[in-house]
Every structure is written in structure tokens, then in C-alpha cells.
Amino acid sequence: MAERPSTAFAMGGEVLDLAFPPQLRERLCACAELAAEPLTGPLTDAAARAVLAGTEILVTGWGCPPLTAEVLACAPHLRAVVHAAGSVKPLVTDAVWERGIVVSSAAEANAGPVVAFTLAAITFAAKDALGAAARYSGSWPAFAERPGLDGRVIGVIGASRIGRRVIAALRASDAGHGVLLADPYVGRAEAEGLGADLVSLGELCARSGIVTVHAPELPETQGLLSAELLASMPDGGTVINTARGALVDTDALTRECATGRLSAYLDVTHPEPLPPEHALLSLPNVQVTPHIAGAQGTEVRRLGAYAVSEVERFVAGEDLQGQVTRAQLARMA
């Protein structure tokens, strides 16, 4: 590989400017020969093929088309894909693995905002913020009518990168709440090390006043939070989903929330976006946000900084902190 390997951006133009401001581009250029023109559209047109022909490192982001065999045929020297975003599933195809191309993701950098969003939703849920706002008419409720976070049982579905950080933050808060974890790939000793009690998904739902979802979307996890499990949650419970909408039975959740028995904070839905007339968008005990829990606005720079660090490590011959393997991807979001 050249001392300063040929490198190109491939992502949406708006994302590029947010993720890679001038200071980060200068830092990238110190270790790599950056193509003058970023690839912000199709990767198979003549202009893109001309750039890809000499590219050794492709720095991708939201808006980058899938790296199909056709695209890779235009990039015979490509050695690494450094993704300045979270999941690489929409981007990486079998052809990438077959070529032996190294793949890195900035999912760790994207996790921070999601964790912060989730913890805020947990706090709002514990204090019944949606209900309090709906009932507020100029007079304050009595203190005995005001719920709080301390002593609550919180169920975490999935010991993912984000799920683990949520558990750690809950345990560090010293609020005296119980944390339950359901994850088929985690043993009891590991769960205890994380600070959670490992239980079945059924027990988690039955015991938790707040359930937060952090599992990947896989064929076996679609509809994971089923009508039966939602019905088993305690009255007044809350569902928080910042993972993938398909993990929750939307129709069943809508019915539970429509009765007022459950509430929900949903940053993802199924389908996504919901139709404008969908009941979840108008229920007073449901907050639906447009997939904003991850890095947004000025936060996107974190993803660019992570990606630049990965390129620096790759050029130096060091291990990549965000490397994703084919085997790992099968169980990742």
C-alpha cells in the first residue's frame, strides 16, 4: 500500500459537510491522498468509476449506495471501507467479504447520542411526563401523585453496544432501581458483571415497569415484543424503542396504548415512517420521533472524527477499533 493511500468519500453531500468539516479533512489529508471530488451519487457512472479506479480506502456514510460486485469491479485496489455511520448492513454486500476488504463502522461513536436519548426517555417514562403534560391545566399535582425513577424495575432487551451502556448508566445513577436483561447470547455471570439480572424475555416484560429495546433486527427478532408479551407488562408500563421498529408488534402496541394501559416513546416504528393518520401519532401517551436518537446535526462530527482515526490506524498498520467481520454482522443491527 502507498504511504499515503488514495482515499475517497462516498456519502450524501449534506452528511459529508456535517461529518467532515475542514479541520477533519485536513487531518485526513495528512495520512491519505484524498480525491478532489467526493462521490455523492451513483457509484457506477463514469465520474465515479474514474475515482474508484485508484481508490484504496473508501470513507462512506449515510447515502452511500450498496457496494455491489458491479461497484467493486470499478475499484480493483480497494482495501478498506471505513463507514462514518452506524450499521453497515445496507452498505456491505457478500462481494465485499469475498474480496477480503476490511470494514469498519463508527457505530461506537453513534452509540453515545442513542444512549443519552434512551436515558432521557427512561427518566420521562418514570416521571410519567406524557401523562403529566396531558393532565396539566394550570394546577400542580400533589407530591403523592408524582412518580419518580428511584426503585423502578427497568428491563433491557439486548446486551448490544447501546444496551450495555444503558445498563452501566442506570447502575451508576445510584437510583436504586432493578435492571433486568434478556439476551440469549449472554450468560448469567456476564449479566451480573454488567450490573443486570439475566431473565427470560417473558419474565422481563412481566416484571418491568419500563422496557427499553436494544436488540438487532434479525429474522428471529422481528415482532420480538409480541402482543402476548405487551399484554403481560404491568399496568402503567412504558415501552421505549430506539433500536428497530420491526422488533415491536405495532398493532398490538397501538391497542395497548389506545386503552391507556401502556405508554410508549418510539424513535423507530414499523412501518417507518408511520402513515400520517396512524393512531400512534395522536395518542397523548405516545411520543413518536423521526429516528433522531442517533447522531444528529453537530453530533455527526463525532462519526467523522471516529472514521478519520480509523483511517489513521489503518495506514499505520494498527488494528481498527470499529472493525466489523462477516460473522459479527450476522448478529448486529
TrEMBL record:
InterPro entries: D-isomer_2-hydroxyacid_DH, D-isomer_DH_NAD-bd, NAD(P)-bd_dom_sf. Residues 137-293 form the D-isomer specific 2-hydroxyacid dehydrogenase NAD-binding domain. CDD domains: 2-Hacid_dh_8 (cd12167). This is Hydroxyacid dehydrogenase. The keyword Protein biosynthesis does not apply. SUPFAM superfamilies: Formate/glycerate dehydrogenase catalytic domain-like, NAD(P)-binding Rossmann-fold domains. Keywords: NAD, Oxidoreductase. The keyword DNA damage does not apply.
